[in-house]
Amino acid sequence: MASVNKVILIGNLGRDPEIRYNPNGMGMATLNLATTQAWTDKQTGTRKETTEWHRVVAFGGLVDVIERYLKKGSAVYIEGRLQTRKWQDKDGKDQYTTEVITEQLQMLGSRPTEEAPKAEEDTTNKAVLEDEEMPPF
C-alpha cells in the first residue's frame, strides 16, 4: 500500500531563524513557525483563535535564502515532510522531536527593501537526505 508524508504550512516566524553549520560546512536552519486558526464562537459571537507552533528544519541552498531574507514575523509557505528524531537528554532519558523537513519554501508578503530576491530564484531543496546524511548538530 502506498503512503504519503506531506506537510503544507503557511504561517509566520515566531523568532529569527537559527542557523548552524557542521564541520563540513553544511548549513541547517531551524524555524519556529506559528499557524493560527480563527473562528467565531456560535454561542457567544466572540472571535477566538488558537495558535499552533511547528519546528521546521531546512538544509542546503534553502539555508542561504533563510539566513539572508527571513526574520521574526516573516510570512512563509512551507512544503515538506514529517520526521521524528530520537535523542537523549542530559539525564540519559530518550526524548523525541517531530520536525517538518523543508522541501520547498516560498516567502510571502512584501519583500525586504534591501537585497530582495530575484523572482526567478528557485528556493526548492530537491536533495533527499537519508538519516545517515543528516548533519551532526
Keywords:
single chain; 137 residues; 5-stranded mixed β-barrel
Account of the protein in words:
This protein has 137 residues and is mainly beta. Helices cover 7% and strands 48% of the residues. The protein contains 1 helix and 6 strands. It has one helix spanning 61-69; strands at residues 7-13, 18-21, 27-40, 47-59, 75-88, 94-107. Strands 1-3-4-6-5 form a 5-stranded mixed beta barrel. A hairpin with a 6-residue loop joins β3 (27-40) and β4 (47-59). The longest helix has 9 residues, at 61-69. It is globular and about 55 Å long. The relative contact order is 0.23. Residues 116-134 have low confidence and may be disordered.
Ordered list of secondary-structure elements with their pairings:
Layout: E1 7-13, E2 18-21, E3 27-40, E4 47-59, H1 61-69, E5 75-88, E6 94-107
Parallel strand pairs: 4-6
Antiparallel strand pairs: 1-3, 1-5, 2-3, 3-4, 5-6
How would you briefly describe this protein structure?
The chain has 137 residues and is mainly beta. The chain is built from 1 helix and 6 strands, in the order ββββαββ. Strands 1-3-4-6-5 form a 5-stranded mixed β-barrel.
Helix content: under 10%
Instruction: Kindly name the structural category.
Output: mainly beta
Rg measurement, Å? 17 Å
Strand order of the largest sheet: 1-3-4-6-5
Order of helices and strands: EEEEHEE
What overall geometry do the principal axes of the alpha carbons give? globular
| Most strands sheet | 5 strands, mixed, barrel
Oligomer designation? single chain
Into which percentage range does the β-strand content fall? over 45%
Low-confidence stretches: 116-134
End-to-end gap? 34 Å
β-strand number: 6
- Treating each run of at least 4 consecutive H or I residues as one helix, how many helices? 1
What is the average per-residue confidence, as pLDDT, rounded to a whole number? 85
